[in-house]
UniProtKB/TrEMBL annotation:
InterPro entries: OMP_efflux, TolC-like. This is Outer membrane protein TolC. Residues 1-26 form the signal peptide. It comes from Mucilaginibacter terrae. Keywords: Cell outer membrane, Membrane, Signal, Transmembrane, Transmembrane beta strand, Transport. Belongs to the outer membrane factor (OMF) (TC 1.B.17) family. Pfam families: OEP. PANTHER family: OUTER MEMBRANE PROTEIN TOLC. It is found in: Cell outer membrane. Its main location: membrane.
Length: 484
């Protein structure tokens, strides 16, 4: 009899000690949800204002516009002046002073030239010799063959303007890619947060049950082995809780990669920050929205816009290469005069008129045109390759959008089943608790049903996070991003 009393007191003491340990562990657990909600919309506002990659994407368009400005330089007026003089042995050999203002014109690839020459001296070539007052001239240089429709400078400018559209599409693509990665990291953080909270809830339930069983054991209503079993459940859930706590910390760090302030300094996501609470509410995408996304992708997807821009560039290049198959025929004409200013008097036979002129004609034509024909053939081949690429890319983009939509619909069906399964499991757990209170069930069954319910709720949150990531993927595959 004394041995039974001693054994009973020892078991009671063990229960008290275990109860003290569980109470200490409960005091060290994180507090309940008291933080501030950090929604995906809040993250989007911060990212699009301060994220360095998104800022970097804007530089693509700026660089393309700078290239257009550089190409416009081929049409800048050019002022040239040259002075040479030789004097030796009291003889003024020559005194050359030539000036020219050249203004490239868009029309017909012509050049407008305004010049002033003063060539004097004993040994100056009679062909270029002028009076001491010099000669003024106004003239044009026009290509009648190759270069009349399009020339190198107009081709370069047109292609540079087309590349602005290409750069803008690349900017949109880079922003969409960055935002897709941000959204995925956000929903990873959401799942890690929910998983930790559900695990913490499981720890709290197990600790509460252990305290109740321990108290019943001390008064003799429960066997001491029930206390040990309840404590083992507490330990298992605490181990899982500690593991999930590390996963949440890592998810928070990864999401912090996208947080920057206006001074371009990195920010850390606060530990008390909470993701938005969905509670199983998801934004469903209907068939009409899918058709809209497919149509938008066919017209505005950055990859297709880039390919079309590249096609426009090749079209300009092809026109230029076809123009180069023509012979080069350049004519130039200049009206000359002794006039140095509009207010001075100059005799009619020395003033601007058709009788006072300089004309020139230049002709050249490669007999085989092998270089020109080879370049034209290369451009045509690139156009064919681009057409095939455009067809294949368009097909893949459309199918990728539809595939993401199909995945969303599958998740919607699974979520509906999972939500109902959680409700059913919760009903089973309540029933098992009622039976346990009447002494018709065991602690093992209670813990099993409760653990399964927690696992099912964690799986539900995992499916919600996966659905949201697939939703972000749907918009990304369509070449756009989700709006709020």
């Amino acid at each position: 009899m004394k041995r039974q009393q001693i054994s009973y007191h020892i078991k009671s003491l063990i229960c008290v000690l275990l109860l003290c340990v569980v109470t200490a562990q409960a005091q060290n657990r994180p507090p309940a949800d008291t933080g501030k909600i950090f929604s995906l919309e809040d993250l989007q506002v911060m990212a699009f204002r301060y994220h360095p990659i998104i800022k970097q994407a804007s530089l693509l368009t700026d660089a393309a516009r700078a290239n257009v400005l550089q190409s416009l330089g081929y049409f800048d007026p050019t002022l040239k002046a040259n002075f040479n003089r030789k004097a030796f042995g009291n003889t003024d050999y020559y005194n050359y002073w030539t000036n020219e203002l050249k203004v490239p014109l868009w029309l017909a690839g012509a050049d407008l030239k305004v010049g002033y020459d003063r060539n004097a001296g004993t040994y100056t070539n009679p062909e270029t010799r002028t009076s001491l007052s010099g000669l003024s001239g106004v003239g044009l240089s026009i290509p009648l063959g190759a270069g009349l429709i399009i020339d190198a400078r107009r081709s370069t400018l047109r292609q540079a303007k087309i590349m602005v559209e290409y750069a803008e599409a690349e900017r949109v693509k880079q922003i969409n890619t960055t935002w897709y990665e941000i959204a995925k990291d956000y929903w990873e953080w959401y799942y890690a947060y929910k998983q930790l909270r559900l695990t913490q809830e499981g720890v709290d339930l197990a600790q509460t049950r252990f305290k109740a069983v321990s108290n019943q054991t001390q008064i003799g209503d429960k066997a001491p082995i029930d206390s040990v079993e309840a404590y083992v459940t507490v330990q298992e859930r605490i181990i899982q809780f500690e593991k999930n706590k590390i996963e949440l910390a890592n998810a928070r760090l990864i999401l912090s990669n996208h947080l920057w302030n206006e001074e371009a300094k990195p920010l850390e996501l606060p530990e008390n920050a909470m993701p938005e609470l969905l509670d199983g509410n998801i934004k469903q995408v209907n068939k009409l929205a899918l058709d809209t996304l497919v149509s938008r992708a066919a017209d505005q997807h950055p990859e297709l816009v880039k390919l079309r821009a590249k096609g426009g560039q090749l079209a300009v290049e092809r026109l230029y290469r076809q123009e180069m198959l023509k012979p080069k025929i350049n004519i130039s004409g200049t009206l000359i005069s002794n006039r140095r200013s509009w207010n001075s008097y100059v005799p009619d036979y020395y003033d601007f008129g058709w009788a006072n002129h300089k004309v020139g004609l230049e002709f050249s034509f490669p007999l085989f045109l092998r270089a020109e024909r080879g370049k034209l053939r290369e451009v045509k081949i690139k156009q064919q390759q681009l057409d095939y690429d455009l067809q294949q890319s368009g097909r893949e983009i459309q199918n990728n959008v539809i595939a993401s939509y199909n995945s969303l619909k599958a998740y919607e069906a699974q979520l509906a089943v999972q939500i109902q399964s959680v409700k059913n499991q919760n009903a089973l757990l309540k029933g098992e608790n009622s039976k346990f209170e009447l002494g018709e069930s065991t602690l093992f069954l209670i813990n099993s049903r409760e653990t399964k319910l927690i696992d099912m709720r964690i799986k539900l949150e995992s499916m919600i996070a996966a659905y949201q990531k697939t939703l972000a993927e749907l918009y990304y595959k369509a070449g756009t991003r989700q709006t709020f």
